[in-house]
Structure formats: C-alpha cells, structure tokens
Design brief:
The protein has 14 helices and 12 strands. It is of the alpha/beta class and about 400 residues long. The strands form 2 sheets. Strands 1-7-6-5-4-2-3 form a 7-stranded mixed β-sheet, sandwiched between helices. A 5-stranded mixed β-sheet has the order 8-9-12-11-10. Helix 1 runs antiparallel to helix 3, helix 1 runs antiparallel to helix 10 and helix 3 packs parallel to helix 10. The longest helix has about 30 residues. It is globular and about 75 Å long. It starts with 5 loop residues before the first helix and ends with a helix. About 50% of the residues are buried. The site of pyridoxal-5'-phosphate has 17 residues, from helix 4 and helix 5.
C-alpha cells in the first residue's frame, strides 16, 4: 500500500473483507464476539490470540478506519475515538501524571485549551502557554518536569502557522513528546510525523466525515505508544468510536483528498478575490502574501487549507450584518463540511474566553471564520462579495 498514491490508499487501504467479499466495507454493528471455545476466550484476554474482544477495545469496522487513516499518515498505528476531544483528552491523560508540565501554543481550539488550562491542573499537571510562532518561547518555557508539547497549526480561527520541525527539535532536546492537533491542516495537506512530531490527533468530525454527520476522532503515533499507554487508557475510560460512525468515516476517507483539494481551491480564490475589500480590515489565509507566515506555510503545507478568516472593520454589527446577508453559506460552528459555514468566534466558539484573552488571540468582534465547502466557487464568491457590500 505504501507504494501507492495517498488518494489510492484512501480508497483501498485497510479493507478487511468478510467471506462474502463485499465491495463496500461491512458495518460490523456488534459490541462483542463469540469465542469458539473457552481456551480461545482465555487466549483473547491474555493477548496470545490477537482477535477482537469487546468494541470498547476494537471492532473490525473501526479497525478498517484506523488502518486506512494510518496508511494515509504513514503512522505505525492509530486508535479511533468517539470525538476529537476524546482523542485530545486521551493523548494528554494517557501520558501525564501529577507533577508533570506541558508547554502549549496559546491559540488552540477552545476545549483543548480548557483541558490544559482548567482540567489537568486539578490533577497536578501544569501548563505554560506560549506564542507558538516564536520558537525560542518554546525553549524558554521548558522545565525539568516538561513531558509534553502541544500545538495546533494552522490555529483556530486566526490561522497562525507554527514551524513543526523547529518545535519538534526543541521538544526532542527537552525529552518531551510533541503532540500536534492537525485538524485545520487535514492529513492531506500536512504531515506532522514526517516533520518530527511524535503524536498526531484529529477531530474526524471535520474534514474526514466532511458531511456533517458524525462525531469522531483519532490519535496516531508509534505502535509502542498507541498499542501501549493510549490503548490501555482508552480501554478503561471508554470513549471508543462507534462502529456505525467508523463506517461513515471510512466512506468519508475515500473522497477526503478530492474534497479537501476542491475546497482549498475555492478558499484560495475567495481569499485573493476579497482581500482589500473596503469593508475588511484583514483577510487571513496562508496563501496570501500578507499572511505573516506565508513562506513557512508554503514549505510546511502542501496546500494552505480550506479556511479563510475575515476581519470586518465595523466590529460586531458589521460581522452580524455580513452573516445575516449570506444566502448560500450557512451560519454554524462546524468546519470542513461540504456546506460552507460562517462562524463568529467571539460570540460562539470563543465566547467562554475573556475579552482580554480574545484580544491576545487576535479574535476581534469583527472576525468571521469561513469554512469553505464544495459549492460552486462562483456562487460562494458572489455570496461573500454581496455580504461584504451589505456589511
Ligand atoms: C473540532 C476540533 C476539535 C474537537 O473535535 P470534536 O470532534 O468536536 O470533539 C479539536 N481540535 C480542533 C482544531 C477542532 O477543530
């Protein structure tokens, strides 16, 4: 499989056919498995027989999804989770204990920030948040007890690009594990493991399903980590992916590469077309020369992604006018969907933060996050232009 193009791997990878040789992957909607005799049951439980035991640990449909995603990522192993947050939670809790320290970039998905800033400290794990784009800030934050580095790039919603290779080097010299939240980049456009990261996590809810149907997540890394600490944690805490969701996600993977490329084409066209509009203070997309990490994005990412952020000059009233004038693009908070989505982070996804925290992250009252979908590019462009004129 590794000699095939990633798009081909996404279609045939991980296929585990039953005796009926079905074309489309089977949905094994089962929580458990019958053993041929008592000896086999014993062998499954002591690990000498590698077969399935219980859907909380693994399931054939979930296994196909895990193998297909691992093939795309060229990771040794993958574990699928009930949601992206279950993946982030497991990646952290499975390898941290009281007294440990985490260094993380400041601009994170809200719930990832909550786990590091509010939840882990209750169990004696502290975190330092740094300006992720400043490599020496990572170095300066390291302590003897630093165990994990965590970052998201491009960040949500301001699309800051962090140099994964440089931060991985700092992590390695500090003896820390680098975990990358690769949701915004997608596994098609950015390969953190190749750049030196140890663990990659996804919300499969976003581009991988890509059609707004199911929650899901995944953690990828070495066989030793995934089949060791992570599996142990997941087995006993229960946030496994359901076989039904895994089946939906498997079919999502088949079209992932095509969908991401088509959406990225439209995103780039929209960013170039609207930059400089009189209603906009700033257009944020890594393909634009005005993006502060434009050059880094060009070498680190195959494509700059499917999200465009727009900062309107008129603050919240202008942002709301813009959203309410959209006719094709829907107002919601998912991303990576076939349907284009506009989100006002300050009043929705990032409402929990203080005004001061939002300012620090560049989330102004005029900021809109646009997740570009698969509608015709011309229709999207007209929709955005009309809404900008109305704002
Ligand atoms: C959505 C998202 C998550 C959380 O995923 P869920 O599937 O919603 O639990 C984590 N990180 C990023 C960057 C996300 O966009």
């Amino acid at each position: 499989m590794n000699s095939l193009h990633p798009r081909t791997r996404l279609i045939h990878g991980g296929c585990n056919r039953s005796g009926h040789f079905e074309m489309s992957e089977a949905l094994y909607l089962t929580q458990g498995f019958a053993y041929s005799d008592a000896q086999t049951a014993e062998a499954r439980f002591d690990g000498t027989d590698p077969g399935y035991v219980y859907a909380r640990y693994g399931n054939p449909t979930v296994g196909m999804f895990e193998e297909r995603l691992a093939l795309l990522e060229e990771a040794e192993a993958c574990f699928a989770t009930a949601s992206g947050m279950a993946a982030m939670n497991a990646a952290m809790f499975s390898q941290l204990q009281a007294g440990d320290h985490v260094v993380a970039s400041r601009a994170l998905f809200g719930s990832c920030h909550y786990i590091l800033d509010s939840l882990l400290p209750r169990y004696g794990v502290t975190s330092t948040f740094v300006e992720g784009t400043n490599v020496s800030a990572w170095q300066d934050a390291v302590r003897p007890e630093t165990k994990v580095f965590f970052l998201e790039t491009p960040s949500n919603p301001t699309l800051e690009i962090i140099d994964i290779r440089a931060v991985a080097e700092v992590a390695r010299s500090a003896g820390a594990v680098l975990v990358v939240d690769n949701v915004f980049a997608t596994p098609c456009f950015q390969r953190p493991l190749e750049l030196g990261a140890d663990v990659v996590m996804y919300s499969a809810t976003k581009h991988i399903d890509g059609q707004g149907r199911c929650l899901g997540g995944a953690v990828l890394g070495t066989e030793e980590f995934i089949r060791g600490r992570l599996l142990e944690y997941m087995k006993h805490t229960g946030a496994a992916m359901s076989p039904f969701n895994a089946w939906v996600m498997l079919k999502g993977l088949e079209t992932l590469d095509l969908r991401c490329r088509a959406a990225a084409d439209s995103a780039e066209k929209i960013a170039h077309a609207v930059e400089g509009h009189k209603a906009l203070a700033r257009t944020i997309h890594p393909a634009l020369r005005s993006h502060p990490q434009h050059n880094l994005a060009a070498v680190q990412m195959e494509r700059p992604g499917t999200i465009v952020s727009l900062e309107l000059k008129g603050g919240k009233p202008a942002a709301f006018n813009f959203m309410n004038s959209l006719e094709v693009i829907r107002i919601s908070n998912n991303l990576g969907d076939t349907k284009s989505i506009a989100t006002h982070p300050a009043t929705t996804t990032h409402q929990r933060l203080t005004e001061c925290e939002r300012r620090g992250l560049g989330i102004s009252a005029g900021l809109i996050r646009l997740s570009v979908g698969l509608e015709h590019t011309g229709d999207l462009l007209r929709d955005v232009s009309r809404a900008l004129d109305a704002a």
